[in-house]
Design goal:
The protein is of the alpha+beta class and 522 residues long. 34% of the residues lie in helices and 18% in strands.
Length: 522
């Protein structure tokens, strides 16, 4: 988000200020009735007179307050509308929005003078998940509206629902409510490439046994992702990415899970505003959506001759006389390796025959992981520089000094005595310290691309329910180490035939709490 910061010494010329539309007021004055003036023929009463006077004063104050708010709101709307339409930043290639909240005390002339003088200080804000109300109040409103219309059109094109009268629902059944969810999608450089809007069901209102039966669905392991990348690099195979558009909208709901849903507010069908959506397929937000889509996807893939690994349900392979294709699927993202270009094109054609897909070409960025390939050396480098920088900003260690090691040598962290009472300041510190959040974020890095912090993260994760300041300091040290090595990458591939090689090591009774040996392997 871009914030316009106006210097305090702005000059304002009231003569050139554009006239704002005045608030329409009635020219009729409110005269007291004769009954009120005479107290309805009663004797004069001071308390009654004071009450009438206070009521009149209160009404006048409310009228003045409404007039003031209306005038201020009109000027703010004019400012936002002008900047949204004519500011050169609005049409920039990165499509960053403009935040005009700082302009409220200033006039439109002040804002224009600031732009002309160059007193503009853009500040980036990485909030990529605005609410629908925030999206409608932002200068990117048209982008979000277009994204919502595209989403509803895709629902209609895929025959996800049938519009039926409300009376067609079974007696006693209530339709699910939904909401529009916004998401800015960015590339590996952080530029906005898409304003994605989903119409999501509020699945928390679904009833088990009525709206759904099972909800479990497999997801791909990062080990599978690295294995496919390693094989492709070693054998110099094709490595591509595919994305199945609106994947959950292709899962066919069984008849036993009949579901109805309200139309999205603001996008109702004309003259059918009270009708409801009878869902034929799953939709985002439904509890069973992942399972229904996975069953649909697996049925199609198996019919094409692919085999699913019994130990990894999101990894498939197919071997034919013309070549081999191996791929993993993470919900709707497909990471595929093929022995030849023709095999990859054949696999792509099979996907296109069943669903609408996005061909992302050679793999470069997936699951938050950047991929760099060097074909002559039969290697692939994977890294998470952007993710590390986000962690550094999020946990506020931008000014911290980087270190050379993720953990101090021979550091021994101990669990506190659970029977000892905790001081109030320690309890308060526990509530304010995001220890679990940081350890979980570091664990994703360790599993994906940074095995060099795996031991430190594994050690720190054993204190999730009893962490103390010394544990937090050790965790921040890992982040300081990552700050000094954000672009360090994991290199996969080899020049010889790929095979499994394992190393293992352990110490002797080094755990201070249990006297157990600590081992590790890679």
């Amino acid at each position: 988000m871009l914030t316009l910061s106006i210097s305090p010494n702005l000059s304002h010329n009231s003569n050139s200020s554009p006239s704002l539309p005045s608030v329409c007021q009635s020219n009729r004055s409110c005269a007291p009735s004769s009954r009120i003036a005479s107290n309805d023929c009663l004797l004069p009463d001071r308390l009654l007179t004071d009450a009438i006077s206070d009521a009149a004063s209160s009404a006048e104050r409310r009228r003045l307050s409404r007039t003031s708010k209306s005038s201020l709101l009109s000027e703010q709307l004019l400012t936002v509308a002008f900047l949204s339409e004519f500011s050169p930043f609005h049409e920039s290639h990165s499509l960053l929005p403009l935040d005009t909240s700082d302009l409220s005390p200033h006039s439109l002339d002040s804002a224009l003078a600031t732009i002309a003088d160059g007193d503009l200080e853009p500040v980036y804000d990485d909030d990529d998940d605005p609410t629908w109300a925030e999206a409608m109040a932002s200068p990117e409103r048209e982008f979000w509206v277009a994204g919502a219309r595209e989403e509803l059109q895709s629902l209609e094109d895929l025959s996800v629902f049938i519009l039926v009268p409300r009376s067609a629902m079974p007696k006693g059944r209530k339709p699910l409510k939904g909401k529009l969810v916004c998401k800015r999608k960015r590339d590996n450089k952080g530029h906005v490439v898409c304003y994605k809007v989903r119409y999501v069901a509020k699945g928390f209102a679904q009833l088990p046994g009525i709206n759904y039966d099972k909800t479990t669905a497999p997801t791909a392991r990062l080990e599978s992702f690295r294995a496919i990348a390693h094989i492709a690099a070693s054998l110099n195979w094709e490595l591509h990415q595919f994305d199945i558009k609106t994947a959950f909208l292709n899962g066919i709901l069984p008849e036993s899970e009949q579901t109805f849903m309200e139309q999205p507010a603001g996008f109702e069908v004309p003259r059918k505003e009270d009708w409801v959506l009878h869902l034929m397929k799953s939709i985002y937000g439904m509890k069973q959506a992942s399972q229904v889509w996975n069953i649909t996807f697996n049925s199609a893939i198996v019919s094409w001759g692919f085999h699913r690994l019994s130990c990894e349900w999101c990894m498939y392979y197919c071997t034919s006389p013309t070549g081999t294709v191996i791929f993993s699927v993470h919900v709707d993202d497909i990471f595929a390796a093929a022995s030849s270009t023709s095999e990859m094109e054949s696999f792509k054609a099979q996907l296109q025959s069943k669903w609408e897909i996005s061909d992302l070409g050679p793999a470069k960025f997936t699951l938050g992981i950047a991929i760099s390939r060097n074909c002559p050396s039969h290697s692939i480098s994977i890294s998470q520089t952007a993710y590390i920088n986000c962690l550094i900003d999020h946990f506020d260690v931008c000014d911290a000094r980087s270190v050379d090691m993720p953990m101090v040598t021979s550091l021994q962290l101990r669990r506190p005595d659970p029977s000892a009472p905790k001081p109030p300041e320690v309890v308060k510190w526990h509530l304010q310290t995001p220890y679990r959040e940081l350890v979980g974020s570091l664990m994703y890095l360790a599993v994906a691309t940074r095995p060099n912090i795996a031991f430190a993260v594994g050690c720190l994760s054993s204190f999730l329910n009893c962490y103390m300041p010394e544990h937090w300091s050790a965790t921040v040290r890992v982040l300081r180490y990552l700050k000094g090595t954000p672009s360090l990458s994991l290199v996969l591939g080899c020049t010889r035939h790929p095979g499994l090689i394992s190393y293992s090591d352990s110490d002797y009774a080094n755990c201070p709490d249990t006297s157990r040996s600590i081992s590790g392997e890679k």
